[in-house]
Automatic annotation (TrEMBL):
Ranges of compositional bias, category Low complexity: 190-205
Keyword Disulfide bond belongs to the record: yes
Cellular compartments annotated: Cell membrane; Endosome membrane; Lysosome membrane
Positions of the Lysosome-associated membrane glycoprotein 2-like luminal domain: 215-363
Disordered, as annotated region: 189-221
UniProt-listed GO biological process terms: establishment of protein localization to organelle
Family of the protein in this entry: Belongs to the LAMP family.
The keyword Hydrolase appears for this protein: no
UniProt superkingdom: Eukaryota
Cross-referenced InterPro entries: Lamp2-like_luminal, Lysosome-assoc_membr_glycop
Secretion signal, residue range per the UniProt entry: 1-23
One Gene Ontology term, aspect cellular component: lysosomal membrane
Name of the protein described by the UniProt record: Lysosome-associated membrane glycoprotein 1-like
Amino acid sequence: MKLFHALAVLIIAWCAVIGRSQAVTLEVRAGDSTCIKAELSASFSIPYNTSSSTRTAQFSLPDSATADTGSSSCGTDSSSPWLVAVFGPGHALGLSFSTNGSLYNVANLTLQYNLSDTSVFPGADSSDVVTVVSSSVGIWATVNTTYRCESPTTFRVGGSTVTFSGARLEAYMPQNELSPTESVCMADQASTTAPPTTASTTTTPAPAPTPPGTPERGTYSVNNRNGTVCLLARMGLQLNVSYFSLSQNKTVQELVNLSPNETSVSGSCEASSASLVLTQEQITTLNLTFTLNSTSNKYRLSAITLLANWSDMRGPFQASNTSLDYLRSTLGRSYMCNAEQTLAVVPTFSLNTFRVQVQPFEVTTNQFATGNKALCYSPCSYPPPPPPQFLFFFF
Ligand SMILES: *[C@@H]1O[C@H](CO)[C@@H](O)[C@H](O)[C@H]1NC(C)=O
Ligand SMILES: *[C@@H]1O[C@H](CO)[C@@H](O)[C@H](O)[C@H]1NC(C)=O
Ligand SMILES: *[C@@H]1O[C@H](CO)[C@@H](O)[C@H](O)[C@H]1NC(C)=O
Ligand SMILES: *[C@@H]1O[C@H](CO)[C@@H](O)[C@H](O)[C@H]1NC(C)=O
Ligand SMILES: *[C@@H]1O[C@H](CO)[C@@H](O)[C@H](O)[C@H]1NC(C)=O
Ligand SMILES: *[C@@H]1O[C@H](CO)[C@@H](O)[C@H](O)[C@H]1NC(C)=O
Ligand SMILES: *[C@@H]1O[C@H](CO)[C@@H](O)[C@H](O)[C@H]1NC(C)=O
Ligand SMILES: *[C@@H]1O[C@H](CO)[C@@H](O)[C@H](O)[C@H]1NC(C)=O
Ligand SMILES: *[C@@H]1O[C@H](CO)[C@@H](O)[C@H](O)[C@H]1NC(C)=O
Ligand SMILES: *[C@@H]1O[C@H](CO)[C@@H](O)[C@H](O)[C@H]1NC(C)=O
Ligand SMILES: *[C@@H]1O[C@H](CO)[C@@H](O)[C@H](O)[C@H]1NC(C)=O
Ligand SMILES: *[C@@H]1O[C@H](CO)[C@@H](O)[C@H](O)[C@H]1NC(C)=O
């Protein structure tokens, strides 16, 4: 009984902490002028090891977080502006910015956590301070405007995730207050124009989704600026997305196949990165980015971004993970795998692939080079998604 009671109190206390993540205001100054200001609600999900298992710590950026004056900076000619929010014993969330004069973006999102903090990481088998970084998280805004995003957006940083739910921020500020002109994130653009929720009482519920079966295999190619094919892919793709359904008034898990005949293809090829961007009916955009390591001559699928704006969603769904390591192969060869594979991206989105052959670099004469079948993985060889949240309490 006592244990039950204690557990219940803990869970309630924890829900209060996680559920009500408050916006924290952070500011970086040089002399009298403010160069970066952010009003953020953020929560973290961090897997860690104990002596016997792997647990996941879940917590929010606390009100007490402050911009660290030592490590934050407005930047110089040779260094970028940095906002470093510190909290607790040695935890930190860092955002570094870059600009090209007309747009600015979050260049790196950094998370530092101190495994010695037993209140957050009970039973951790290490006392290290861990730092993980993710680059190009996709936070962009026009210079002299405030970036605004109310929709929860999850970023994977190392093995951990950071979710911003409600962010207003500006870097390279011309004055000391956030600009009244806003660059609204894609995910918010539809939620503000979403039909009023009262409509849901009159609409008939959507029929229960039927499993879509195996997706059709599509052939996709991306051309260089000079018109030659630089990336080739042939595969079936299925999205596995969990989102809040307006018609069913609950979170649902939906499988959606990409239909090659309804999908438009774009993308880009650079020396060490190549992106394949598939857009289905203007409402689903999937961006697969491959990176080449020119030292080892190996390439991998390193980033997956999904933007889905489906009619039954409360607002567009956005998910991005830029530190992936899938579909590894060697320059000059294609990657091939006939078995179905599950590529975990974020906890609410994974991508199932079927009969894949891709070659993101060094395509010659519009054809695949010999496949590298030896590098085909079974679904189980990828790390499973983080365990349920309440594992946190089993100490
Ligand atoms: C936990 O331990 C396993 C096995 O030693 C290791 O592969 C994994 O990376 C560790 N995970 C974390 C989060 O440290
Ligand atoms: C990590 O946490 C421990 C325990 O709270 C503390 O003694 C130590 O100073 C912290 N490390 C850093 C770098 O802040
Ligand atoms: C900045 O980058 C954006 C997007 O890549 C581009 O459209 C714009 O022209 C660039 N501006 C300058 C001044 O380079
Ligand atoms: C982002 O992080 C990478 C790797 O940690 C580093 O090389 C790069 O300089 C950082 N960029 C910025 C703008 O901070
Ligand atoms: C931003 O505002 C500052 C000060 O008002 C101005 O000097 C600068 O040209 C503006 N930059 C852009 C890209 O509009
Ligand atoms: C999402 O869909 C709605 C309704 O179809 C549309 O008004 C809105 O512009 C779309 N948003 C984005 C970001 O595409
Ligand atoms: C097209 O551009 C690529 C590099 O961007 C180059 O390797 C290739 O030779 C060019 N092809 C033609 C026909 O110019
Ligand atoms: C979809 O994702 C959920 C949650 O990760 C998982 O339980 C389910 O098995 C997945 N379904 C398919 C068909 O991949
Ligand atoms: C949605 O579900 C919640 C609780 O599950 C309930 O309070 C609410 O009335 C429902 N809304 C509609 C429109 O059915
Ligand atoms: C695309 O193909 C599917 C089945 O393969 C078919 O049901 C659908 O009508 C096609 N759509 C278009 C726009 O041709
Ligand atoms: C696709 O993702 C890559 C890496 O995140 C990014 O550089 C590129 O601009 C994206 N392309 C589009 C069209 O969004
Ligand atoms: C590229 O590969 C080399 C050799 O395997 C490795 O040491 C290096 O860390 C890799 N670089 C990147 C950016 O992954």
